[in-house]
Design goal:
Layout lengths: L2 H6 L8 E6 L5 H13 L5 E5 L7 H12 L3 E6 L18 H5 L4 H22 L4 E5 L15 H17 L5 E2 L9
Length: 184
């Protein structure tokens, strides 16, 4: 078991962490993780990153692996491009979940290409011995990404499709469902 999980097993408390950025934000590690350690003398237990933006070099993945080996937790989000339009995650145009999950449609081809790219990165981490928490389709009750605010049955179908896609490739992940908190 990972040292971080052993430390928190059978305890009550709060786990703190920090999002380290994404491949398009190469200074994220220094800006957040290194600066936090310099300021506080401690490294956050939980380090999050996002596979949705930018290029992901092996050095970024290696940083996550090193964090895990040092006893930390690694969580990966994915701001997926819009498979209906080819636009960014914030492009809210979409078709039906049937179109998205039907083999051979343009939307399905784009979705599976994105899933395959993420699977390759997650497999790299898994082969490096990193237990990863995967947080796809997050903040589903928001209104700023194409996968958000869907009817619950459609959203569940997307989640199941993603789970089946990843596990069929041999990935063993901890899956995190993370709704958004509404601000009042």
């Amino acid at each position: 078991m990972n040292a971080a999980l052993e430390r928190i097993q059978n305890t009550t408390g709060i786990i703190t962490g920090q999002h380290a950025g994404a491949g398009s934000f190469p200074t994220g590690w220094e800006t957040y993780i290194t600066a936090l350690k310099t300021t506080t003398g401690r490294t956050p237990l939980w380090v999050g990153a996002d596979f949705g933006w930018g290029e992901w070099s092996e050095s970024w993945l290696q940083r996550l692996a090193d964090h895990y080996r040092a006893g930390g937790l690694v969580a990966i989000s994915w701001h997926a491009s819009n498979p209906f339009t080819g636009g960014p995650d914030t492009d809210l145009a979409r078709g039906s979940v049937d179109e998205l999950l039907t083999d051979g449609t343009k939307a399905n081809s784009r979705l599976t290409a994105g899933l395959a790219q993420q699977a390759a990165r997650l497999l790299w981490l898994q082969s490096a011995g990193v237990g990863t928490i995967f947080r796809p389709w997050h903040e589903a009750n928001g209104q700023w990404a194409w996968w958000e605010n869907w009817p619950p049955d459609d959203y569940r179908r997307l989640w199941r499709y993603t789970y089946q896609f990843m596990t069929a490739r041999g990935l063993v992940l901890a899956w995190l469902f993370a709704p958004n908190r509404w601000y009042y």
